[in-house]
Amino acid sequence: MTVFGEPFGSHLAVTPGMHTDRTTATPMCYDGGYWAVTHVPTGRAVVFATSIHLARDAAERLAASGIDWDRPLADLQTDQAARDVVDAVRASVLGAPAVPRC
Description:
Distance between the termini: 22 Å
Largest sheet: 4 strands, antiparallel
Structural class: alpha+beta
């Protein structure tokens, strides 16, 4: 998968927000209203932000967290430490409460 964005660490990048067809996971169009910290190996957004500055701050925190972002997505989704880091970054950088993920 090719992800165009500003890299943070070896497996995270700040990217423009995109609308995606949820049934096929196909990117449909860019949405200029937000930015995302994207997990490069899967192309999935980890954190959304309303400005590039907040997205960069979130990416820096995630990259410095000690989590191995190179692991398969299923491993990251079931790793409580990774989930805790993502929830903490969402809450502190974005000022939003942690939300359950599917």
